[in-house]
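Regression check, zinc ion case 209:
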Amino acid sequence: MNPIPRDADPADSLWEREFLELAHGLVMAGAKTRLIARYTGLPLRRIRVLYRTLRGVAAPSGPIAQGSARFFALRSRHTSAAWNIQCAAFLGCYERIGSLTEQPLHRGWQLLAAFNAYLAITDSLTKSAAVKQLDINQCFALLTRCGFLQDPRAELGRRECPSCLISYLVVASLPASAQPCPVCSMSNNARRLAAQAAAAAQSRTRHSR
Ligand SMILES: [Zn+2]
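Current build output:
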């Protein structure tokens, strides 16, 4: 997949092949039709045909960006520390891909390249630990909430954890102290559970004597 620079125009015949490749890649990744249209300039009808030809399924419809800033960064009934780590892993891929070339990359191209890299590095983890991966539409929503890592006024920012040094997501309008590092939270939790299990085992042995 040849990189597409930021200023390439989908209407320019010079880039026709690259934008078609991008559209195919986005279809295979399950991107919403409107998202593909935005980044490739292809008409919605043609994208629906691509979905049917390449994957034999109907194209996913509906609005493009979904998920509030809190959904990506905070722990709740629906999201966990592992989810926050997945979001940070995707953003790390997006940033790394962006630093590969001196020239700014086309955002749709960078999204797809980062998404494929993210899937590759998190695949084994998600299979073994049953952690949910982000889909490409969520990745796009996440990028918009982060201002594509270029807007300092974005709703979501990143904070480097002083103890484990990972860079994780925080809601910019909330105090950092209320948003602990997800990796450290998970390991503290694991330590607490291990200590509880050890205490329970010890009291069982004491009672059985
Ligand atoms: Zn940490």
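Comparison notes: The pocket of zinc ion is lined by residues 161, 163-164, 166, 181, 183-184 (CB under 6 Å). The mean pLDDT is 90. No diff flagged against the previous build.
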